[in-house]
Amino acid sequence: MNRIYKYILLLCACVMTTVIAQAQAQGIPYACGFEEDEDLSNWVMIHRYSAHAQDQWMIGSAVRCEGKRSMYISADGTNAVYGSQPNIAVSYLVFKFPESNKQQNYDISFDWKCSGDSLNSKLYVMVCPEQLLHNEAANNYYDLNKIASSVSGVLSPRVPTQLLGESRAPFLYSSKEWQNVSLSNELRISPARSRIPFAIVFIWVNNNTNPDLQQTGICIDNVQIGDATIKKPQSLTVEPICGDSTMLVSWESGASEFEVQYRTVGSSTWRRAD
């Protein structure tokens, strides 16, 4: 079903540690814009495995999609700029699905931007049972020790990362503007898996060696995990109307009703479209 609204719109789908630690599982639905102090300690950040590594995950105000803060990579501990030493940095959140006696489907989405290129600097995403992150078995490629201790700036192709967005991209890179992305495939959680903690893992891979390259690293905001029973709208388009100060916004969906909210560029106030 297509719906068209005429508005001036900007639509948005929208502690730190150097050792691997156990995190408290968060409930579903989960939404985090990194604004509330109590949300920040739920994220585990792993970096500086190499003495030469510069990049580290941090939560700060240097850049954000909305609000005052986001989570991003910084080479200097302040600015959202990545460094010139190859390394891999990991940030993850532990969460738990509601227990169920039948399979349930879930969706994960977040806002992101990054000026890295596909050869040198990009973000991978991994979702798995939390227990696999700390299992050092030789054939377990979810193991964070194997992933984050690499100093080559190249992620092993055996690491089971997620495909992202409608394009089913294996990683994210080269976007100077904020975008929203979901996992390409919904998470199908069986009754047995609904009883164990899971983790979403952001893996920043930097193979840049040019000290003169000063670019924005990966920035994350508005992480959401929720029920996928109601399908998200697809094929969103925004078209200006000639001779008018309005826009046509349309999308495709099987749902019969929507609540549309909008805000002007630079504003943090959302308004509902009646």
List the helices and strands and how they pair.
Layout lengths: L4 E3 L22 E3 L4 H4 L2 E4 L9 E5 L9 E5 L12 E9 L8 E11 L6 E9 L14 H5 L26 E8 L4 E3 L8 E9 L12 E9 L6 E7 L6 E6 L7 E3 L8 E3 L1
Antiparallel strand pairs: 1-14, 2-12, 3-6, 4-5, 5-12, 6-11, 7-9, 7-10, 7-12, 8-11, 13-14, 15-16
List keywords for this structure.
274 residues, mainly beta, Jelly Rolls, 2 domains, 2 helices, globular, disordered N terminus
The residue ranges in which pLDDT falls below 50 over 5 or more consecutive positions are: 1-21
Number of helical regions: 2
- The whole-angstrom Rg is 19 Å
CATH architecture annotation of the largest domain: Sandwich
Overall SS class: mainly beta
Order of helices and strands, N to C? EEHEEEEEEHEEEEEEEE
The total tally of domains equals 2
Q: Could you say which overall geometry the principal axes of the C-alpha atoms support? A: globular
**Total strand count, please?**
16
Give the CATH level 1 class of the largest domain.
Answer: Mainly Beta
State the helicity in percent bands: under 10%
Question: Main beta sheet: strand number and arrangement?
Answer: 7 strands, antiparallel
Overall pLDDT, averaged?
Answer: 83
Distance from first to last alpha carbon: 18 Å
CATH fold descriptor of the largest domain: Jelly Rolls
Percent of residues in β-strands: 35-45%
